[in-house]
Amino acid sequence: DPEFKRAYEEQEPEFAMIRAILDARKNQGITQVKLAQKMGTKQAVISRLESGNANPSLSFLKRLAAALNATLEIKFKYQ
To answer: Rounded to whole angstroms, how far apart are CA atoms 45 and 51?
Structure first.
């Protein structure tokens, strides 16, 4: 279905971000609760983020990267 494919492709950046967050957290072996504690937020916030039900600010993503001992990198790709 071309319409479904288009809708999916429009959401791909969000899916990629969610995968990156999940991978980073799981690779470090920390739970949502522990990550939330490191960030000074609640586990429910991390859960909403990982389920795609949140639209995090740049400030939040910076805090997330710091809590994961990672560097936040945002790129524009030209076609």
So the answer is: 10
